[in-house]
Amino acid sequence: EPEVTQTPSHQVTQMGQEVILRCVPISNHLYFYWYRQILGQKVEFLVSFYNNEISEKSEIFDDQFSVERPDGSNFTLKIRSTKLEDSAMYFCASEKYQGTPGNTIYFGEGSWLTVV
Amino acid sequence: KQEVTQIPAALSVPEGENLVLNCSFTDSAIYNLQWFRQDPGKGLTSLLLIQSSQREQTSGRLNASLDKSSGRSTLYIAASQPGDSATYLCAVRRSNDYKLSFGAGTTVTVRA
């Protein structure tokens, strides 16, 4: 079964450093997402992306975050200057878009980010 | 703002018993509801998707019901097995913005 793949699975970074998390969505999917889960908390929405632009973002997704689809297969999340509170599991997800969103959303295994 | 609540937070049952997991949401204007399974430190595996027009969905031993007007969904897992031990998350998609709002999950332990 096709799956969303994410790299790296774990990353430890110094506070203030830039981090790029990478994702390869399912190949025929057109809608992409980033969610995150701080340890012990709910999964929360960060951003959705369609047709090479952000379609929606949460209040968490401030100027230090950015997303990009640099080629036909990758989808990245960049955190420009990491803070301690950015430590979390980051999930990439994708969806087959058929006119409107509303299909099953498939999640990757996550990238665990620890900021020290 | 959509609030999603899952009760109970944790559940421990002997193997073979049926599981009943509850999810409630505050805004009934939803597009659909999705149930996920999460193993410790792992990603989210989609189990079932119920559209707002549907009352239930079934997949193998899993059955999920939806009562949109009362803001509730229930996931039933028949004849539980130790391999069903995991955290089960409910996520609701609102009609006006499409993003998923998650509950905190129910952590299930099935004892052999």
How is this fold's topology laid out?
The complex is a heterodimer of chains A (about 120) and B (about 110).
Chain A: E1 5-7, E2 10-13, E3 19-24, E4 31-37, E5 43-50, E6 53-57, E7 65-68, E8 75-79, E9 88-95, E10 105-107, E11 111-115
Parallel strand pairs in A: 2-11
Antiparallel strand pairs in A: 1-3, 3-8, 4-5, 4-9, 5-6, 7-8, 9-10, 9-11
Chain B: E1 4-7, E2 10-14, E3 19-25, E4 30-38, E5 44-51, E6 56-59, E7 62-67, E8 72-77, E9 86-94, E10 100-102, E11 106-111
Parallel strand pairs in B: 2-11
Antiparallel strand pairs in B: 1-3, 3-8, 4-5, 4-9, 6-7, 7-8, 9-10, 9-11
Can you give a write-up of this model?
The complex is a heterodimer of chains A (116) and B (112). Chain A has strands spanning 5-7, 10-13, 19-24, 31-37, 43-50, 53-57, 65-68, 75-79, 88-95, 105-107, 111-115. In chain A, the strands form two sheets. In chain A, strands 2, 4, 5, 6, 9, 10 and 11 form a seven-stranded mixed β-sheet that branches. In chain A, strands 1-3-8-7 form a four-stranded antiparallel β-sheet, with no helix packed on it. In chain A, 0% of the residues lie in helices and 50% in strands. Chain A has no helices and eleven strands. Chain A is mostly beta strands and 116 residues long. In chain A, a hairpin with a 2-residue loop joins strand 5 (43-50) and strand 6. Chain A starts with a strand and ends with a strand. Chain B is mainly β. Chain B has strands spanning 4-7, 10-14, 19-25, 30-38, 44-51, 56-59, 62-67, 72-77, 86-94, 100-102, 106-111. In chain B, the strands form two sheets. In chain B, strands 2, 4, 5, 9, 10 and 11 form a six-stranded mixed β-sheet that branches. In chain B, strands 1-3-8-7-6 form a five-stranded antiparallel β-sheet, with no helix packed on it. Classes of the chains: A mainly beta (116), B mainly beta (112).
